Amino acid sequence: xxxxxxxxxxxxxxxxxxxxxxxxxxxxxxxxxxxxxxxxxxxxxxxxxxxxxxxxxxxxxxxxxxxxxxxxxxxxxxxxxxxxxxxxxxxxxxxxxxxxxxxxxxxxxxxxxxxxxxxxxxxxxxxxxxxxxxxxxxxxxxxxxxxxxxxxxxxxxxxxxxxxxxxxxxxxxxxxxxxxxxxxxxxxxxxxxxxxxxxxxxxxxxxxxxxxxxxxxxxxxxxxxxxxxxxxxxxxxxxxxxxxxxxxxxxxxxxxxxxxxxxxxxxxxxxxxxxxxxxxxxxxxxxxxxxxxxxxxxxxxxxxxx
Length: 306
Hints:
Elements: H1 3-18, E1 26-29, E2 35-38, E3 45-47, H2 50-58, E4 65-67, E5 85-86, E6 89-90, H3 92-98, E7 102-106, H4 112-120, E8 125-128, H5 135-146, H6 150-171, E9 177-182, E10 184-185, E11 188-189, H7 196-203, E12 206-208, H8 222-228, E13 232-235, H9 256-259, E14 263-265, H10 278-299, H11 301-305
Parallel strand pairs: 3-4, 3-7, 7-8, 9-12, 9-13, 13-14
Antiparallel strand pairs: 1-2, 5-6, 10-11
Helix pairs in contact: 5-6, 6-10
């Protein structure tokens, strides 16, 4: 073998290695615009929110996860990953012991001071903080790049956008419905217009009656709901079952939502997590609002003709 042929084969081998997942430096801007630079695609990743765990599994990086927070329960394999505290109270010692190459934090949920501390300790920290449905496929693409799963991330993002477009085409221009989304009952909490759930409501042709509030997930008073008089109330809770406190609104029969029998629930895992399953929650939201429209039209046939 001549020297030229030998050198050519070596160059080809190096090119093949560098183009494989996990090799070659890369830089990706996080949701706050801060560039996150890695020497190579991360093979040891810690997720600091359940929705981030779902995003990483969706791009095929589940086996690269070495740590997740509590309630990271989807998919099933996520239950077997080491816990590093909760999204609201991180276990910094456990995270440090795992020696991750990348930590993906939740900008809207993790304690800011603890996230900053992880960066000070020298870890690469990527902030994920989707506020609109369109942010979810972008998260899939960016996390796919960071994990060396770019093709899988692009495929997952494309499928998400396809389903999202179909929902928007079917429901976004339907007659408006005024919606109160109840996160919790004690204290009584909702979401403002900057929250992802408010974007889901808009996707379904609805309007969030508390969109103008300045806080992302504000506590409100009972009197605020009575004054807003929503046509639909949608509640979540802690589990898959309809929260028992949703029916407590029947104590105020003057509410349009009560008169119209428009008290609905959606499991929190598919509506309050900023991950791929948000479209499952959106579908349930759209169906609920469509049922409310049908009841309204049945009660007032003139409304159906307008």
